[in-house]
Structure to design on (732 residues):
């Protein structure tokens, strides 16, 4: 059994946090008796500034050979906004058809939340963000640029195909969480009272699929504005949440904030279809934090937890139980480490990047 | 001096909270020596269900004769989503060209915030939401509806004209707040790294106008996802915020949540251009709460504070100092009342709707 992993450290603190995740990976591979082959790839802002290349179609093709991709962070202060985000991150999500962006919002024991009176019992949901449609398609343009008559547009797109596969994934997830003791509730978040066209496509599919195939799952609908309010006031109402791409971006950042901040938020860009050969890509939700890059200050827990997700998901999709088991172990080690952050800020804990890596290794019994 | 006011109570708790605001208005008009003429208008869900009429073009024309509009809430459980919202609220915002949606996010003394360790000093900003463009234009459609090939779109639109007038309003507001002791910082919120077309129009206008005409105002830019995170973790970084329509909807609901909830959030749909004869419209941010309608449970403070804004803004725009002074008095009375909510939930305080109206009247010395 083996794992053939593409590693994109990316910009800023990306390579540092990835380095810690790879230490952890080495250990669990050794313990679990599986081979790991890692290929570091130089895609990111530095290469773009040196060579002018963002990410070529051939490079995207090349990534298809891997079992999975681990990404640190993309974003460079000297590169105009959108170039790397659209050219690397979104290009990979779209071209590898990673149609699920899976983002748990879970407050770990010991981690401080900004919400008064809320604890791990109240903040424990998972957000399924559609990852290949919506305002993220990039359709639109600018006319009469630079004049008083300038007009620009961006198009939000929803297809039954794209919406349905995302909804089905979310319903299945809600069902599997129900089996673990969660309420079995799926909340759709949209803005159907204004975005009547795209909102209609989502809402009708949600009702039809839910009624036909998931009668055991409670369906709820929230407008995105109300959802943000509830995340700040009563996050305990959420179990599994399904949401289009743009609103998903927003509510998962807010979700990360209430779950203690970016230092711990993991995510997976999944292609969960077993018939699809493209790899999934896993990344911390946080950005490249150029201000603290190279200072051994970044918290690698989000990246290490993303590795846990990578191992679990890749193991499950590819039928490799040793990977799945290793993923569970890494997840448990992260959970074991978080109480050490009690009374500290997650991002300014005083612990160094490699020191936190050490803690996770220690929790693994290494 | 007089005020000719159109009153749309609307649905659910709307008429109840408006009734309290009108009691307050009567009082300050009597005290301030100005005439008030109020015309109740039956627009809303009930009328739609009875007659099939949402809001006719003639009725919109008719509204242009008033000095201002006070709106309770629009939204009815038996009416499909979008019908009343687009047919009344958005139709009025757009056709009366109320291009500024002004939403203070201010934690009043005594009001509970969900954020640990934050108080009135940390939560005191004002959001300027563009109100006549963006995803709210309604452009888009659905093709192959009800089939597996269904596709729907919604268009986000930004024009230099619409963006510039909104930005100039926001820069002026930041400047006038600076004169009152605020930092003099204007934060633009968008998603320029993905929405490069509309985001570009906003960002370039922001930089150009700020550099040319508002060098005294500090400019900051935040992505909308980061903004939601900061609103939950460090709201004190915000002074004046300017934001397109859809993202403005989202961040102001979150803003209302951190400022103690919908019970207190006021808003104005402004047409601040003195050369424009159309009235502005003022409304609480909260919805129609059909579950508690008719039970004397709704908190009228948001509506009364919207009345304060109505009086201030109408007085200023129309050069009627008596109205402005009355608006200041109503605002001060709301501020005087909020400490009575110490230790209580704003929305389930145990105080009745009319009782809270009494408190405000009492604070006015009536
Ligand atoms: C960097 C950016 C393009 C990206 C997104 O908007 O999806 C990020 O915010 C995220 O949430 O992964
Ligand atoms: C009711 C709805 C159309 C409206 C909006 O989205 O603008 C509301 O949420 C608001 O914020 O005033």
């Amino acid at each position: 059994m083996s794992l053939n992993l593409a590693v994109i450290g990316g910009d800023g603190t990306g390579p540092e946090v990835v380095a810690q995740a790879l230490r952890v990976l080495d250990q669990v591979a050794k313990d679990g008796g599986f081979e790991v082959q890692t290929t570091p790839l130089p895609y990111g802002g530095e290469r773009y500034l040196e060579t002018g290349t963002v990410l070529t179609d051939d490079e995207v093709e090349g990534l298809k050979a891997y079992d999975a991709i681990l990404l640190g962070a993309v974003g460079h202060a000297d590169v105009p906004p959108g170039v790397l985000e659209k050219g690397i991150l979104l290009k990979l999500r779209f071209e590898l058809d990673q149609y699920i962006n899976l983002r748990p919002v879970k407050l770990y024991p010991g981690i401080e939340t900004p919400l008064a009176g809320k604890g791990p019992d109240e903040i424990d949901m998972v957000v399924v963000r559609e990852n290949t449609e919506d305002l993220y398609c990039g359709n639109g343009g600018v006319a009469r640029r630079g004049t008083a008559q300038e007009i620009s547009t961006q198009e939000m797109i929803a297809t039954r195909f794209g919406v349905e596969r995302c909804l089905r994934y979310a319903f299945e997830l809600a069902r599997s969480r129900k089996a673990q003791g969660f309420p079995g509730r799926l909340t759709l978040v949209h803005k159907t009272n204004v975005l009547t066209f795209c909102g209609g496509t989502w809402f009708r599919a949600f009702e039809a699929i839910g009624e036909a195939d998931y009668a055991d799952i409670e369906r709820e609908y929230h407008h995105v504005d109300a959802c943000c309010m509830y995340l700040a006031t009563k996050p305990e109402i959420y179990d599994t949440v399904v949401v289009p791409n743009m609103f998903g971006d927003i509510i998962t950042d807010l979700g990360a904030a209430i779950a203690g901040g970016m230092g711990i938020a993991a995510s997976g860009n999944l292609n969960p279809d077993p018939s699809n050969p493209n790899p999934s890509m896993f990344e911390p939700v946080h950005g490249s934090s150029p201000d603290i890059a190279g200072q051994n200050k970044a918290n690698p827990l989000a990246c290490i937890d993303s590795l846990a997700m990578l191992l679990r998901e890749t193991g499950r999709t590819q039928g490799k139980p040793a990977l799945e088991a290793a993923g569970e172990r890494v997840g448990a080690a992260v959970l074991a480490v978080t109480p050490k952050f009690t009374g500290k800020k997650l991002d300014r804990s005083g612990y160094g990047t490699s020191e936190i890596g050490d803690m996770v290794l220690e929790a693994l019994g290494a």
In short: Chain A has eleven helices and twelve strands.
